[in-house]
Specification:
Order of helices and strands: HHHHHHHHHH
Strand content: under 5%
CATH architecture of the largest domain: Orthogonal Bundle
Shape: rod-shaped
Number of helices: 10
Radius of gyration: 31 Å
Structural class: mainly alpha
């Protein structure tokens, strides 16, 4: 007799759907610890294992009518679903590109180096605008240049800075 039938003994299928929660609770109490132990061997952390086990029981709940119509044991089905979910998770993880985050100190050093390649006029407008928070009008007044010139220098400074950082990324790869 399957675990679902024993959860709701001699119940017709219509009653089984009403007692689906009880059947899934019983399945969980019977199989969750063993299933979790199995899944955790293949997961990088407990949260991932919990997610796989949870999704396994959600699928059991969704397939309860099919599972209850079958007299085969439910345990192997649960383990097969968990194994398939583990395989899917592994494939998804391998298909994502690996990204390496630079450390903030490395980022600051990289930007400082790129700023050194800018002309003094471009560097001054960029630093005054972004690091000191000045508006373009205020920076233009401070430097004694027309606002259009400040805007133009900022545009070309950002373009040159992007190019320097892009060139650095191309060399690093």
């Amino acid at each position: 007799m399957s675990a679902i039938h024993s959860a709701v003994p001699d119940a017709p299928h219509s009653e089984l759907s009403r007692d689906a929660d009880a059947a899934v609770r019983q399945l969980y109490s019977r199989h969750a610890a063993e299933l979790h132990s199995y899944v955790q061997r293949f997961c990088p952390d407990r949260a991932s294992a919990d997610d796989i086990v949870q999704e396994t029981f959600i699928r059991a709940w969704r397939h309860l009518p099919q599972l209850s119509a079958d007299d085969r044991p439910i345990g192997p089905w649960l383990f097969r679903v968990a194994r398939n979910l583990l395989t899917d998770a592994d494939r998804a993880a391998r298909s994502r590109p690996v990204t390496v985050q630079a450390q903030p100190a490395e980022d600051a050093q990289l930007v400082t180096g790129a700023l050194q390649h800018l002309s003094p006029a471009h560097r001054t407008v960029l630093v005054e605008t972004f690091y000191h928070g000045g508006s373009l009008a205020a920076v233009a007044r401070q430097l004694g240049i027309p606002p259009g010139t400040a805007r133009s220098r900022l545009h070309y400074a950002l373009h040159a800075l992007r190019q320097q950082l892009h060139d650095h990324d191309a060399i690093a790869c």
